[in-house]
Amino acid sequence: MARRSKLAERSSAIVAQAAAGLPVVVLVGRANVGKSTLFNRIVRRRRAIVSPVAGTTRDLNLGRATHGEREFMVVDSGGLELYAAHPATERAVAEALQAVAAADVVVFVVDGREGVISADAEALELVRETGRPTLVAVNKIDNAGQSAAAADAYALGAADVVCVSAAHGLGVDDLLDAIAARLPRREVEPEARPDLRVALIGRPNVGKSSLLNRLAGFERAIVDDRPGTTRDPVDVRLNAGGRDVLLIDTAGIRRPTRIEENLEQFSVGRAIETIRRAEVLILVIDASEGVTDQDARLARLVESNDRAMVIVCNKWDVAARAGKRVPVFVRDAYDRHPFLEFAPMLFTSAITGDGVDRIIPAAARAGEAWRAAFQTAHLNRILAEALAATDPPLIGRRRLRLMYVTQTGNAPPRFTFFANVERDIPVHYVRFLENRFREALALANVGTPIRLEFRRTGRSWAESRERSGESSDAARPRPSQTRR
User: Fold this and answer.
1) How many CB atoms lie within 10 A of CB 359?
2) Model confidence pLDDT, tens digit, residues 176-226
3) β-strands 414-419, 402-409: how paired?
């Protein structure tokens, strides 16, 4: 009983927090009747993973939708498999029913090809007990000849039945008309863009969902010891230190050779898409195992997508009991993977809560550095100090001459050096410049990559400023770029 009460509180908190005053529409029904396909059609993007595997959706999936002048929150729920024995499926069923209790309109989805079966009738009866306004959507009706399947739905005692094909979009506008007609009128402020978009990524079972729940203050994501519990990305909005933060949990990402099922491939593909959606990535690793090769591959993926990153070494309580120490752990990680030095490391335990409160502030600092802009005069003072400290190298038979530098972009910071040579600049000298600029600009070990580009010119900074109007951008040679 206590477990059910806790699930009820969890589901209600998820829906209320995400809806922010919007009317709520919940999609329910047995597994594999097409709820996730319908959800994606209503929110007009591929938000939920769609798979022929029954029980793909576990956590509640939420998204804003509009129809005409009406805006509302849509909730995709797990299948109502009332006699399931799998713990994760049981929790998904309990959450779906509690989401129904918080809904303004319920859309009960049935499979028009398979027809209505006794499990549909039993699930619909549970939904009706909540007293929420309910529509029945007969899905997978791909042509007019199949509409006779609606008769089975009327046999359930449903007064409002709409035939749809979520896969092809047929009948969806009629369904949305019916939903909009039943939504209550509420004054709702437009959704504000978050100040920061942060995503948790990592291998399976490193504690991402547990960290999300800690940060959210309630159980937003289902947590299970079995790897692969999280499938769809899970979003939650937080207010941390006056910042509006969108926090995203993702499916665990294994090496491609170990991805055995199509469903896992879909989950991993969606997790990789989330990297591009976020601004700061929290790479969660299992501290008891150290930084593995797959952790390093994920870090490379983040860095190659120009995103900021913070490394969270979770399960540190376990690692500490095994005799590991923070200074040695950090030194060994950076020695083995030097490219990780741009990202700070935090040490946490999602079980005890230790260190979790430092995650969002660290992500915010990384996000600020990622967006940072700097004055050209300040950059050229740093360059002058670097040139005074170390002579530029010879490239072939020519001494590299760096005339001036300017910032040509941010997110992440991008610096273009104008020089007499633009190619074959030694890696060790590029790294020297990067380190000098990171230290001088307070970008060292804060979490943002920086990009150094080199463009050939024969003029100094002062000469270039005087003659800046004489040449067009189109005539300038394209820069070579070094990714750091």
Assistant:
1) 22
2) 999 999 998 876 666 678 899 999 988 888 988 889 888 877 665 444 444
3) antiparallel
